[in-house]
Amino acid sequence: MLKKKKLVLILTLLVFAMVSVVGCGGGETAEPSDGAQSVKDKFGGRIIGIDPGAGIMVASEKALVEYDLDYELMEGSDATMVATLKQAIDNNEWVAVTGWAPHWKFATWDLKFLDDPKGVYGEAETINTIVRQGLKEDLPEVYEVCDNFSWGDADIGSAMGLADELGDDVLAARQWVQDNQDLVNSWLPEGYDAGTLVDNPSKEEVTLLYVEWACARAETNVMADVLKNIMGYEVEMMSVGAAAMYQGLAAGEGDAFFTAWLPVTHGEYMNQVGDKVEDLGPSYEGARIGLVVPAYVDIDSIEELNN
Ligand code: PBE
C-alpha cells in the first residue's frame, strides 16, 4: 500500500517536472506564431555533427566561418547523428546534420543536401583503398583483392541496408557476399570462387583499420568476409579514429583501409602521411558530404540558415 502511494507521488512529481521543463524550454523560443520563429530557432541553433576527427567536421567548422553562421556544431558519432535525425523526423521538427552519401539514411528518410554556393564541402569525391607500403611484396593476393575491390551505389547501398536491417555487421557482410558472387568473383585473384568457403581461415593475419561510419563498416566487413571466408586469411578489424587510421597505417600498424574520402574530406590526412602509404585508387565514385535536412524543411541553401 505504502509502496503504491510512493509510486503515485513519484509519478506525479515526475509529470510536474516534465511539464515545467517543457514549459521552460518552450518559453525561450516561443513566438506568437510559427511564422515568427527564425530559421535558427527552428533548428534549435544546432548542427548535429559526428566524431571530431571526421573530415566533414573540419569542413563544417569552415562552413560556420564562411557563411557566418551563429550555430553550434555538436560532436557525436554517426550513430548519435542518425538517432537525433530520427527523433526529429518522428516529431516533425527541423534538424540539420552533417550528412554524407553513400549512407543508408537516404533510403530510410526523405532528405536533402542544402546547397553550398561557396563550395565549402567540395565536389563529388571518390572513396579510395589505402594499403601499407610493402603489402604487395608480403601478401600479394591480399594486395590484389584490395586493388580490385570496386562497387557501385546499389552495391554499397544494399550492404549498408542489410547491416541496418540485421543489426549485425558480420552476418550482413556474409549475406551480402553470398548474394553478390559475380561481383565478388571479379575482385578475387586466380583460383578462388565466391561460392567456395574456407572452413578454417589460417593464413597470415590481415589487419583492417576503419572508423565507425556506416559506409566504412560496410566496406570493411565485406572485405573482411572475402579475405577470411573465401581466401582463408585470419582477419582483425580495428576500430579507430580517422587520424589514427592514417597514422596507424603509415606506421605499419595495419595492412589496409577502405574509407579514404579524397581529394577533399581526407585531403589533409593524406598529405600528412604522404608516400608512407599506397593509394590503390577508388572503390566508389560519386561520394558527397554536406549539410543534410529532412525534405520537409523549407530552406534549400546553407545561406538561408541565417534567416
Ligand atoms: N564521413 C564518412 C567521413 C568519411 C566517410 C563523411 C563521415 C569523414 O567525414 O571523414
Sequence-ordered SSE layout with sheet pairings:
Elements: H1 2-29, H2 39-42, E1 46-48, H3 55-66, E2 72-74, H4 78-90, E3 97-101, H5 105-108, E4 111-113, E5 125-132, H6 135-138, H7 140-148, H8 153-166, H9 169-179, H10 181-187, E6 203-210, H11 214-230, E7 233-239, H12 242-250, E8 256-262, H13 267-273, E9 277-294
Parallel strand pairs: 1-2, 6-7
Antiparallel strand pairs: 3-9, 4-9, 5-8, 5-9
Helix pairs in contact: 8-9, 8-11, 9-11, 12-13
The protein binds 1,1-dimethyl-prolinium (PBE).
Walk me through the structure.
The protein has 307 residues and is α/β, with parallel strands linked by helices. The protein folds into 2 domains: 37-123 and 291-306, Glycine betaine-binding periplasmic protein, domain 2 (D-Maltodextrin-Binding Protein, domain 2, 3-Layer(aba) Sandwich), CATH 3.40.190.100; 125-287, Dipeptide-binding Protein, Domain 3 (Dipeptide-binding Protein, domain 3), CATH 3.10.105. It has 13 helices and 9 strands. It has helices at residues 2-29, 39-42, 55-66, 78-90, 105-108, 135-138, 140-148, 153-166, 169-179, 181-187, 214-230, 242-250, 267-273; strands at residues 46-48, 72-74, 97-101, 111-113, 125-132, 203-210, 233-239, 256-262, 277-294. Strands 3, 4, 5, 8 and 9 form a 5-stranded antiparallel β-sheet that branches. The radius of gyration is 23 Å and the shape is globular. 37% of the residues are buried. The protein binds 1,1-dimethyl-prolinium.
